[in-house]
Amino acid sequence: MNENMLKHDWTKEELLAIYNRPLMQLVFDAATVHRQWQKPDEVQISTLLSVKTGGCPEDCSYCGQAARYHTDIKVQALLPTETVLAHAQKAKDAGSSRFCMAAAWREVRDNRDFDRIIDMVKGVNEMGLEVCCTLGMLTESQAQRLQEAGLYAYNHNLDTSEEFYDEIISTRKFDNRLETIKHVRKAGITVCSGGIIGLGETIDDRVSMLRSLANMEKHPESVPINALARVAGTPLADLPRIDIWEMVRTIATARIVMPASMVRLSAGRIEMSEVEQAWCFMAGANSIFTGERQTLLVTPNPGVSEDMQMLKNLGLKAMVLEKKEACAN
Ligand code: SF4
Question: Whom does it interact with, and what assembly results (predicted)?
Fold first, then answer.
C-alpha cells in the first residue's frame, strides 16, 4: 500500500454509496481497509491541553469558549511555558505519543504570546513527542515559524460541510479554513483536519465534509471525527445526542476514503460506552484523546487509566512512535 494508490477525486455519489451501505457490510469493508493500511491493534494516544481558554471572539455555535455565550467555562490566560512542559512530560510518561496545545484564538497574532507558543513547541518537540497546535487562522509566515520550531502537526478542522458552514459559524468562511490549511501544507507541517457530527447537519453535509478532506491534494494525515459535545449556554446545547451508528458510519467512510490517515475518535467519547467505542475502532478509528485532567479542552473526557483499561479489554495497545527524533530546524 502506498500513497500513489490514494484517490483524490471522490464524487458525492460515491461517498453517499459508501456511507449508506448496510451497516455490517460498511464496518466489514472499513475494517478490511484498516487492516491493509494500518496496524489494527494499535491506537495512538494523544493528549490535548488547553493552553489558553475561553474569551474567543468567534461565534462557533457548538463552542463553550466563544465569549458571546454564557457558559460555565472560566477564561484562562496563556499558561506559563513551564506549566505546559510539565503537562507534556506527564502525558509522555502516561503513554501519549502526541501532545496537542490549543488556544482559543480567532487567529495567531505576531506578538509575545506567539513567541511563548514557539517556546512551548520547541520544548515539547525536544521531549520526542509529536507536537501539534490548534491556534486558529495562520498566515504563511506564522506557519513557517512554527515549522522551524519543530511543529509536527497543525489542527484546523473544517467543522462541517461548505454548504452548512454559515449555519454554524458566521464570523469566518469555509474558505478561510482552506486557506490556513494551505499555509500549513506549504510550510511542510502535517495537517490534522476533520469535523463534528451532530450539529443538525444532513447526511449529505457529512459526506460533503469528508469529500472536501478526501479530495485535498494530499489527505490530512490526521482526521478527527468529533461527536457534538453539548455545552450548556451554547446555541446547540439542546440538540439530541448523535446516534452512535451515524458516528460509526462517518468513521467508516473516513477510513475507506482516506486509508492512510489516522482517524481520531475525538470529542463526545464520554457519552459512549466501551462497546460503542469498540465499534468505532472496528470501523477504523485508531486514535483517541485522553488526559490526566479528564477533559477534552473544556468538555468532559474519559481519564487515561480508564482508557488504558479499555484498550486492554479490547486487545488494543498504545501506539509507540518509531524512533521519533526532535524535528530538525
Ligand atoms: S471553536 Fe475555536 S474559534 Fe470557534 S469559538 Fe471555539 S475557540 Fe473560538
Answer: Homodimer.
